[in-house]
């Protein structure tokens, strides 16, 4: 069974593993574990009966955790990120003083000492203040990094959704455009060739199934796309006489299993018929498809350039100046293949109008 590779040139959110998604929580757990367990084990190893020493170390660490996570979960998102700097500063001063006093009181109770305002206690409070400032800054840094990362992911997701919506809009414009042209041809044909019109309706039915169902996917096989193009050419050809010389050639190296975005070439072929085909004047349309490189596919459409009106000189009429087809094509290429596609059109040395499109392809693989 063949399965295509995922192919997308616009930003997409990659799936992340457990450790990547919870790296911050795991790192915090590791740091606090080391701060609590390692010193406690060291104190216990030095004196197994010194439970008081273990508790004396554990109480300050608990105070540090209260300050860190009060800021991490509450104060920073509620006050600092909402531009309430004064409230953020005030509540941290109040909480810090409360935690410092409570920690010192619990520590004195554990040690069995009486509370006396001594230089040692003042030095301890200053130490707490320095540590609390460090913890607050660490919490701000971590939350800011997480916030910036989330904002960046939201921006990428919004951009991706906008791009997908724009692609859908461009495709929705393209489909009615193709249908409008096809129905016009069948209408004109029904008056002169009912049997040909019946055949054209069957061909159109097959094409509509492709447009409605297959093109919902971002990629289709080149075989399906070429079948659609040949049906379109066959449908358009019914309208013209032998004044139109039409050729379609495929390079021997063309791999029909490669995958391409659907209905990417049809705008150029529509323009070739619209501006280069005639039932009353000699005209020609040549469509050739090749693979200049293993990972690229190219289509060249060459056609005569006729005047839409008798009074308008042919060299004043260009397909790129009319309709939405080429504008949509250029925009789709910019979205799907930014910087890695080629679209060129204009008069060539033979005096014929020539359009060339070259795009990357995705190769199918066997699982």
Structure description:
Strand 5 and strand 6 (296-303) form a beta hairpin. It is built from 9 helices and 9 strands. A 5-stranded mixed beta sheet has the order 3-5-6-8-7, covered by helices on one side. It has a two-stranded antiparallel sheet with strand order 1-9. The longest helix has 72 residues, at 119-190. Helix 2 (23-46) packs antiparallel against helix 3 (51-78), helix 3 crosses helix 5 and helix 5 (119-190) packs antiparallel against helix 9. 58% of the residues lie in helices and 14% in strands. It folds into 2 domains: 18-156, no CATH class; 193-366, Histidine kinase-like ATPase, C-terminal domain (Heat Shock Protein 90), CATH 3.30.565. With 367 residues, it is of the alpha+beta class. The model is unreliable at 1-15 and 310-316 (pLDDT under 50).
Q: If you compute it from the alpha carbons, what radius of gyration comes out, rounded to the nearest whole angstrom?
A: 36 Å
Strand content is: 5-15%
Beginning-to-end CA distance, first to last residue: 7 Å
Biggest sheet architecture? 5 strands, mixed
Secondary-structure-derived class: alpha+beta
Task: Assign the CATH topology of the largest domain.
Answer: Heat Shock Protein 90
The total of beta strands comes to 9
The CATH H-level superfamily of the largest domain is: Histidine kinase-like ATPase, C-terminal domain
**What sort of overall outline do the alpha carbons produce when their principal axes are compared?**
rod-shaped
What fraction, in percent, of the residue positions are helical?
A: 55-70%
Number of domains: 2
